[in-house]
Amino acid sequence: MTAQHWREPRELREPARAHRAAVDAVLSAFAEPGVVEREFVLPELGGGFAGRTAIGFHFVDHVVHAWDVAAALGVRLRPAEEVLVAALAVARRVPADAAGRGPGFAFAPALKVPEGAGPLAETLRLLGRKPRAWPGTGG
Question: Which residue of 47, 64, 121, 123 is 20 to 30 Å from 82, comparing CA positions?
Fold first, then answer.
C-alpha cells in the first residue's frame, strides 16, 4: 500500500489539521530507510517487533478505528477489498493470548468468527469487536 491511500485534502479545519500532522509524522517515520528491519517496541502488544510487523499493526489499527468511527456515526465503512484483505492478514498475526487481552490491554479477547464471515467482519472479531452490535456498518 502506498502513501496515496492515506492522502486527504490540505484545506482542513482544526481537528483535521491535528490528524494530518499525526499522519504526516507516521508516514515520515515509516518512510525512513531500513525501517522495515528496525525493531519497534510496542508495549501494548507485549514487546518488540520488526518494523514490517509494527507497520502492519499500525495499518490494521487505522482500518479498525475507521470502522469504530463509522459505527459511531451509523454509516457503512467501504474500504477497497485489497485494504480489507491486507488488514485481515495483519489481524491474524496479532497475539491472541487471552492473558494479554481484555480490560487494560490494547485488544479485547478475540471473538468466534462465523463461517463465511467477510474480511472486515473477521478482522473486527479477531480484534475483539462485535460488528453486528452496530447496525448498518457491515460486518
Answer: 47
